[in-house]
Structures are given as C-alpha cells and as structure tokens.
Model the fold of this input.
Amino acid sequence: MDFAALMSKEISKARPGAKAEEPSKKYMKRSEVEAERREKYLAEQKATEDERQAKLAQKRKREEVEAEANLAREEKRRKLAEESRQRREEQEAEEERARRKRLGLPELVKETSEDVEVDDIKDDELVEKLRAMGHPAKLFGESHKQRLRRFRKLGIVMSKGPIPTSLELVEESDMKVEKVPEDAQGKKFLFRQLASYFTMVLMEWESALEKEKRDTFASKAAYNAMVQSKENMTPVSSQLLQAGSFANISQLFRKFEKGDVDEGVLEPIVEIVKAAQERRYVDANDGYLRLSIGKAAWPIGVTMVGIHERSAREKLHESDKGHVMGDEVTRKFLQSIKRCLSFAQVRWPPEDIRQLMG
Done:
C-alpha cells in the first residue's frame, strides 16, 4: 500500500460520524452466480405462469358467460318457434273446422294427450328417415304430427346394408335355398333368404371396390355398374311410383317385401341363386339366359315368302317367351342379378374351372 492511500484511510477514520465502508466482493463463486441466476429464472417463470393462469381464468369466465347467453337465446328461440307452431296449428284447425262446417262434414275429434307421441322427432330428422325408407318426405297439407303418425304407422325397421329393406335378414348359414315352397310362411322365409344373399353380395362388391382407386376407365365402369345394380334393387314407395318419377326402377327388394313375385320369375331366380351358392356359375348363367331370353323360337332369315307359310313358323308366336323382352321393370333387376353373378364368381371362385362364366 502506498503512502497516499494510507493517509486517506487514516483521515477518514479520524472524521467524526464517518462509517467504515464495507469491503465489496470483487470475486464471486460460480455456485453463487448459478444460484442467483436460477432464482431470477424461477421468479420470471412464476410471474409468467401467474399471468397465464389469470388470462385463462378470464377466458373461461368469458366463455361461460357467452355459453349462458347462447343457451338463453336458444331457449328463447325454441319457445318462439313452439308458440309460432301452436298458433299455426290452431289457425289451420280453425280453417279446417270452418271448411268442414261449410261443406256439412262432421267435426274432427280433438286429439287428447294420450294421442300425442311421447318420443317426438325433429322435423328435419323425420324427413330424412322417411326419405331413407323411400316414402314421400311431406304430403300436401300434412302437419308435423300427421307426418310423425304416418312414420309410426309404417312400422318399418330398415335393415343395415347397401339396400334398406323391411325384411329381416338371415345369417349366412341360413341363406341356402333349395326350391320354392308351397306354403305362405315358407315363401316369406324364401324372400328373406334371397334378400340376404343379394345384400351379402352387394356388400362384398362395394367393399371390394372401395379398396381400389377409381382413376381408370375400367375401375370407374365397375363402380358405376355396382351403383346401378344397387339402385335397380332398392325399394321405392308406391306414392313415388304413382307420381311417375320412378316408373322404370325395378325394385326387386320391394317385390320380396310384398311377396308378389311372379311364379314364372321366382322359380328361375331361386334356381340361379341356388347354383351361385353352390358355385356352379355356368348353370346359374344358363338359368339367367332361360329366364331372360326364354325358349321361344327366333326368326332367322325370311319368315314368309309368297302365299305359303314356312314350316314351324307358328312356333315363333308361342307363349314361351322371355320375361325380359316385354317388361322393362323385370329387365332391370335381371340385369342386376347377372352383374351380381359376375362379381360372385370372382369373390367366391368355383372349384371346377369349367363352371366359370365366359
């Protein structure tokens, strides 16, 4: 220590009231520096977390307030819609009473609380269900209650599958057909077997095409053939048929549901399905040809020359003709059956290679 510094120190000690300066640390340990840095980091993280939690609490509070407001608005809208519907129904009922009174008709019996459906269905959902059944979504002048009552009266439990049907499908082990039974109960079970078999084939067909890419002409054509076959078998309501919009749809499944398949068509169909289930696809194709073309004699060349008829010309007009020739409806579902056979021999190939269709 030099002389000037020593003198300055002594003078400072001699001053009254002067405090000795604490010696400042010129050097700090690394552990102390690390501990100080860690404390600052933890303090910053805690402040950030507290700020984030405060923002989340404010956000949750805003969301709760907004949800309550939306719920209140929805309840108010529902009440207004219910009041509007009740006023509309009362007005319609009053107009109907006035009309019936003017025409001299008896008054309608007012519905009691027992007549009201307990499990109501929203109108949009009800319309979709009716359309899925193949029935008109809305009839002229039909109210929601009348539409709901019509839906209940249908009592149709649609099966799950590519073709909605009211028939109760059977298991694959019970699909084996033999021949057309004589009794009515046996025929009903036969229709369930046929519907179950074609449903199984269409489901396998649709599943196989979904795995393939439809970016080529062949794949697109195969997919369109499957969709057309499915549409040609789908049931359509009698109201839509009378309207004329679906006059050419074959609706094979509707014939199964109603049980009005002609015997001349039912027996060959059973023969075709039986052969297909036994993987005798050539025999099934022969049954299809007999059903579609028949055994009628076909004219070849000139059938009439001069005043004399050729021999066997009368055979050309016999009654043994193919059903498909004169019936557009039957032609459509027979074509769908043929396409199902073509897919079935690919999905379930025969053991005998000679039973493959060309």
Notes: The CA atoms of residues 20 and 105 lie 119 Å apart. Residues 30-103 form the longest helix (74 residues).
